[in-house]
Amino acid sequence: MNVAPVFSDIDDSPLESAEAMEARLFEIGARRYHNLHPFHRMLHSGKLNKGQVQAWALNRFYYQSSIPIKDAHVLSRFRDRNIRLEWRKRIEDHDGIAGDEGGIERWFILTDGLGLDRAYVESTKGILPATRFAVDAYVNFVAQRSPLEAIASSLTELFAPTLHEERIVGMLEHYDFITPDVMAYFKRRMTQAPEDAQFALKYVKENARNPEERQAVCDALIFKTNVLWVQLDALYHAYVSGHVPPGAFRPEVNG
TM segments (predicted)? Predict the structure, then answer.
């Protein structure tokens, strides 16, 4: 029986060095990062209405608020105090510390500015089922897979600053309901994300010591890009194509 070959968009040859793995990681980002998704293209070019932007911010809150939980799982995987100290900063960046409100609070500034009720946002009652499933899968991945894979899954941060810059410029230009103040989250991540990404990249380059471990690093990044992509698929299906599932946010009711 003839079986049709399976073609991948990513080279799958053995990774014989840390440098080859790094190049593969950037290839994954170039081909699979969610900046390429049609929903993001619409968001950044002013093609969405306010209700659709509200739906995006509401659903994305579940991801943002789950990041410290994910990072707490990473912390629990390491006895090395230096790694814990470095990774703990990520939790503080999102949950906040004295004198710094943190990323989750800055996300509330965005949803407040979009006219969403904060209690409703925080309840996550209106998010899409696919959002919840995808984000929970990410948290479980980090808790259950190897520490190397857990750290590798964060490497989407390598590509985030370009996306944040595009988002800030595009949304301020195209939406009269967006002001510089409500974009505070993305402005802060322009400096935080590169620092976080460089630590994670250095860690995986030093600790993935054979082709199998290097492939596991790449697979973890692919998994994470899928987590981000499927959330946008769900938003497009619900709020662009018009198939909002029961119980999910409806701008005409909850906006």
Answer: none
Q: Which residues of the chain have pLDDT under 50?
A: 1-7
DSSP secondary structure code for residue 245 in this structure: P
Residue 157, domain member (yes or no): yes
* CA-based nearest residue to 41, from 29, 26, 52, 28: 52
Q: Is the Cα dihedral 28, 188, 83, 88 positive or negative?
A: negative
**CB of 102 within 8 A of CB of 67?**
no
Q: Look at residue 248 and tell me if it is in a domain.
A: no
Read off the pTM.
0.93
Q: At what angle do helices 160-174 and 184-207 cross, to 10 degrees?
A: 170
- One-letter amino acid of 226: N
Contact predicate 171/183, CB 8 Å: yes
Which pLDDT does position 190 carry in this prediction? 86
Could you give the number of structural domains in the chain? 1
Residue 111 pLDDT = 97
Rg (CA), the chain: 19
Angstrom distance (rounded) from CA 159 to CA 171: 19
* Parent domain of 116: 29-243
Torsion of CA 175, 177, 182, 183, to 10 degrees: 0
